Amino acid sequence: MTIAKLQQFLAVCQFQSVSRAAEFLHISQPSVSGTIRDLESEFQINLFRHEGRRLVLTAEGSFLRERAQQLIRQFDELSWQMEDLGNQKNRFRIGIPPMAGTVFFPQLYKAFQAAYPEITLSITECGSLHAEKLLEQGELDLAMATLPAAPSPEFSCQKLARTQLVLCVSPSHRLARAKAIDVTMLEGEPLVLFGTDTAPSNAVLSLFAEQQLRPNVLLYSSQLSMIKQFISDGTAAAFLMDALARQEPDLVAVPFSEPIYFDTVLLWKRDQYLYNDVEHFLRFAKKFKFQGIIEKNMRFH
Predict the structure, then answer these.
(1) Which of 54, 70, 150, 232 is a Cys-bridge partner for 16, taking CB atoms 3.0 to 4.6 Å apart?
(2) Which letter does DSSP use for residue 189 in this model?
(3) 299 within a domain of the structure (yes/no)
């Protein structure tokens, strides 16, 4: 059993087909078939059974897949760490949430790239809750997250900025002149929310649940441009960070009567090895002037 054989085995698990796994790995089909036979012969077990044209894992195969995934992940992490020690890596993986990513990330990224042009960021757009799962699974090195409270103990974080959640409506909306709102004023109101993997959307849904109200959600979307279009044409209202709402002169931002605050943070696993590139980014972000972004174009209706 070798790492290469386990990688081929996992590819067969993924595609449920030797031929498709071979195509994905850019190696011959007989080579992949031979690898599966070698593993089965080595341990005197059957890893797959045939169901029509698909290969389905046996109980033994499922056990090997789980352990193989762990080993491959550890192998990849070790490779990255050794490259990092040799100063050859110069890249890391970061998750960016849709709202905070729009407000805070572009200017931070631009400034960081100017200071460290040799470091490449592999960016995944994902909500804060999904980012935590990706960090736990080792699929991200770092995540920008929007949290209503301190993260769970398995994570470390570095605070970047604090923002307030507001309701955004068109100037002609019935709530456009309201000084403040609560969820009871939104009963039956058409809403567009970011995905349920985002902390702000979960906070809003919790507020409705506390009042035993069912929100009228037209759709969930991670596309900010689509959400803004729904707001501006009066189709629906939506919840945005105040720092983001201030950048939209055609929208009216109405705060909650009891303000809802979120901290935008950089998040990583507490027991995770931090690559040099990640540490450079954390130090740079700590010195970056996010308050200027928040205060820029300060505007409330």
Answers:
(1) 54
(2) -
(3) no
Under DSSP, the state recorded for 250 is: T
Cα distance between residue 234 and residue 253, in whole Å:
14
Please report the beta strands in the chain, taking only residues with DSSP state E, as ranges in sequence order: 48-51, 54-57, 91-96, 120-125, 142-147, 155-169, 190-193, 216-220, 237-241, 252-255, 261-269
User: Is the pLDDT confidence value at 260 over 80?
Assistant: yes
Residue range 80-102: average pLDDT? 77
The count of domains in the chain is 3
Is residue 18 one of the residues assigned to a domain?
A: yes
- 80 falls within a domain: no
> Which of 120, 205, 132 has the alpha carbon at shortest distance from 165?
205
Condensed to tens digits (0 to 9), the pLDDT of residues 116-132 reads: 998 999 999 988 889 99
Neighbours of 285 (CB within 10 A): 19
pTM of the prediction? 0.65
